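To the wet lab folks,

You asked to see what we're planning to order before we commit. Fair enough. Below is the target structure as tokens, and below that is the sequence we designed to fit it. If anything looks off to you, flag it before the synthesis order goes out.
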């Protein structure tokens, strides 16, 4: 999700994103491993999925004595918000917990004492429809991935809107983009617990649905070198996108018949926000329209115009055979120095809340209003590194040979766990 307004006594416009997920049992890092990698990085498992949870999340520990909370991994904000005791509308089922400030000996009220945050991309059926959370502010100690504890300002959520779909299974968000000094990651860096770089891989494996690394890059997760591009964002992490190219599927009926109209390249030349809290690719209306027209010019693509909609804001979900899904072209996004690619199976999604039944496919490319956001459907093909100190973003293909990003054992090869920022 992307924050469009943060209220903490006064209005403070600012970015914010969140992501939550379930279906994965998370265990705390083994203490001997955490100690071994404390200065070079610490990897921990991530839960979540593009659907149905529409977020990826990890565990952290809050307070004294510490209690564990799941929180969405958010590249679009620096806030830590968790459910307060007695929260109206918050999720209580495990692994969720509720923060009781009176039960923590290190908890203190924090100025300006109350907050209210409003987001976009949090309502899965209507990505530009806002939803809000609100509550009280405290300072307390927080640990994550065996690093810490460090003092952090956190929001204790007392109420949330009913359309906050991303908080339907997991209640909480931990942000990694701040510019301030009181968030979790900035405090870990300030305490020299880790370097000013973090990375994430959101590809399901045998042990979890992904891996989050604080303070480095877990090279076991990639199949190939990390390629870095400039971070052009201000307040957000963002990259410059030069063009989109639709790449023909060589097995499609149009190619076999000699009638394929692809590949076709569309100039873009604008920056895109990288938001781990947005599950799909969101485009401005003009770019969305051009891309839909270019793709659906291939008349062999089943139900293409129904998927894209006419007008584009009224797209529908459709039943497709496996061969019909595979016939859809790949979408290649050209950045400054590398290209990101999504197959038809990345942007044609099953399990969407938009579908009338589970077998339908829905288009995972939607209107973001004025926002251009690269979300999890693109990111899950890559090990993604946010080098905050170097103001750059790294991309490497997922190591599928070992079963994806969630197949790394925390005790395996920890001497190779992280590249330090200075070694890139």
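Sequence we intend to order:
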């Amino acid at each position: 999700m992307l924050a469009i307004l943060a209220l903490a006594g006064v209005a403070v416009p600012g970015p914010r994103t969140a992501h939550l997920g379930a279906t994965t049992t998370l265990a705390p890092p083994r203490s001997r491993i955490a100690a071994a990698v404390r200065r070079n990085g610490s990897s921990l498992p991530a839960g979540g999925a593009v659907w149905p949870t529409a977020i990826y999340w990890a565990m952290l520990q809050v307070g004294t004595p510490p209690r564990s909370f799941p929180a969405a991994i958010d590249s679009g904000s620096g806030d830590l918000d968790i459910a307060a005791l007695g929260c109206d509308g918050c999720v209580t089922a495990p692994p969720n917990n509720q923060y009781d400030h009176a039960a923590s000996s290190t908890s203190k009220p924090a100025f300006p004492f109350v907050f209210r945050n409003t987001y976009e991309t949090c309502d899965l059926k209507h990505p530009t429809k806002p939803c809000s959370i609100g509550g009280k502010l405290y300072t307390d100690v927080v640990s994550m991935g065996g690093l810490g504890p460090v003092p952090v300002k956190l929001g204790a959520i007392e109420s949330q809107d009913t359309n906050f779909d991303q908080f339907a299974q997991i209640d909480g968000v931990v942000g990694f983009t701040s510019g301030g000094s009181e968030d979790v990651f900035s405090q870990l860096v300030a305490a020299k617990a880790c370097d000013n770089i973090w990375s994430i891989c959101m590809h399901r494996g045998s042990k979890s649905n992904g891996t989050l690394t604080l303070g480095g890059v877990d090279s076991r997760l990639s199949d190939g070198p990390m390629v870095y591009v400039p971070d052009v964002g201000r307040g957000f992490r963002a990259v410059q996108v030069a063009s989109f190219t639709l790449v023909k599927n060589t097995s499609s009926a149009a190619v076999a018949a000699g009638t394929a109209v692809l590949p076709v390249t569309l100039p873009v030349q604008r920056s895109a926000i990288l938001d781990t809290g947005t599950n799909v690719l969101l485009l401005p209306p003009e770019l969305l329209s051009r891309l839909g027209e270019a793709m659906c010019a291939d008349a062999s693509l089943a139900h293409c115009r129904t998927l894209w909609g006419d007008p584009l804001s009224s797209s529908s979900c459709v039943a497709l055979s496996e061969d019909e899904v595979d016939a859809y072209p790949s979408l290649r996004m050209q950045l400054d120095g590398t290209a990101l690619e999504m197959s038809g199976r990345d942007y044609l999604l099953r399990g969407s809340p938009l579908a009338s039944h589970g077998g339908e496919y829905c288009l995972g490319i939607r209107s973001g209003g004025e926002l251009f956001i690269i979300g999890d459907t693109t990111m899950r093909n890559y090990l993604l590194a946010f080098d905050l100190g170097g103001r750059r973003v790294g991309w490497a293909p997922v190591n599928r040979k070992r079963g994806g990003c969630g197949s790394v054992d925390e005790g395996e090869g920890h001497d190779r766990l992280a590249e330090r920022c200075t070694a890139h």
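Structural context that might help your review: The radius of gyration is 21 Å. The CA atoms of residues 282 and 368 lie 5 Å apart.

Thanks,
Computational group
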